[in-house]
Amino acid sequence: MTGDQPLIEVTDVHRTYRRPRVSLTRPGRAVAALRGVSFSVTAGQRFGIVGESGSGKSTLIRLLAGLDQPTEGTVRFRGQRVSGRPERQLGFLRRELQVVFQDPMGSLDPRMRVRDIIAEPLVAQGHPDTAGRVAELLEAVGLPQEAAGRFPHQFSGGQRQRVSIARALAPRPSVLVADEPVSALDVSVRAQILNLLADLVERYALTLVFVSHDLSVVRHVCDTVAVLRAGELVELGPVDRVYRAPEHPYTRELLAAVPTLRGALARFTTRTAEEEQP
Questions:
Q1: C-alpha angle 236-165-1 in degrees, rounded to nearest 5
Q2: What's this model's pTM, rounded to 2 decimal places?
Q3: Residue 273 pLDDT more than 50?
Q4: Which residue has the higher pLDDT, 150 or 2?
Q5: Entry's SUPFAM superfamilies (predicted)?
Q6: Among 116, 111, 105, 108, residue whose Cα is nearest residue 170
Q7: Is 100 helix (H, G, I), strand (E, B) or coil?
Q8: Which sequence spans correspond to the domains of the chain?
Q9: What mean pLDDT is reported for the chain?
């Protein structure tokens, strides 16, 4: 792949769901989750996807990760088609793209110790030295080595998200997809996790796809932003330009409606904050 070729290509993607039949005489209604969405992400880019609940963000992430299929259009990764392929043909994507979900408690097996949670994708891919990789990742996400022997319920929400990030990084992906990774956290912890993500993306030379309902959060970690409204891409551009001079009325509404993290981020990045202790 050349440096100019997009890493991820989304071309005229539509996704329509049909709601269940409500009666024998009334068929289920078709609901358009995505309508003609097109964009590309280049290697090393920090690409934000913003929109309110119901805008199609989660559907789009599922399509990028090969967890769902578009009704129309194509999704490609490194030039290879993702859409339309069965799971057994998506090994190339599973090796390179990993997802951090919004709810770490829901995505972590409560019966597994942290070392096994982080090592699970390595074991699945046949890597021999899982212990060394787990130790490296615990250090990278700011957790002590003794955390490896504990269970998810023994950690705070912010610490569990650190475990989720470590697990996602375990197989050395080239793309990290973060789906609302800080929306359930306190403001102070949100700032820490956002800074951690930014540092890890830089450290491991990752491409980041970051999903949020808050433009101020995206501005902190992304260089490009796509704004979704009711399944349509209504604005796309450099995040600073979109933040300073939004072109679409919906983008202006988002900027006016959401609280900003700038004050909180300033407080927590200009002094040494106490890290959470497990």
A1: 55
A2: 0.86
A3: no
A4: 150
A5: P-loop containing nucleoside triphosphate hydrolases
A6: 116
A7: strand
A8: 8-16+30-269
A9: 87
The pLDDT of residue 72 is above 60: yes
H-state helical runs in 45-125: 57-64, 91-96, 104-107, 114-124
How many angstroms separate the CA atoms of 153 and 143, rounded?
15
For 231-262, give the DSSP string.
Answer: TEEEEEEEHHHHHHS--SHHHHHHHHHSPPSH
Which pairs count as long-range contacts for 56-59, CB under 8 Å and 24+ apart, including other chains? 56/15, 56/228, 56/230, 56/231, 56/232, 57/179, 57/180, 57/211, 57/213, 57/228, 58/179, 58/211, 59/15, 59/33, 59/34, 59/231
What CATH code is assigned to 8-16+30-269? 3.40.50.300
Buried residues in 140-162 as b, exposed as e (16+ CB within 10 A): bbbbeeebbebebeebebbbbbb
DSSP tag of 147:
G
Give the pLDDT mean for 188-211.
Answer: 93
Q: Residue 158 pLDDT > 50, yes or no?
A: yes
Cα dihedral 265, 266, 271, 276 in deg (nearest 10): -10
Strand order through the sheet with 80-81? 30-41, 8-18, 72-77, 80-81
pLDDT recorded at residue 23 = 62
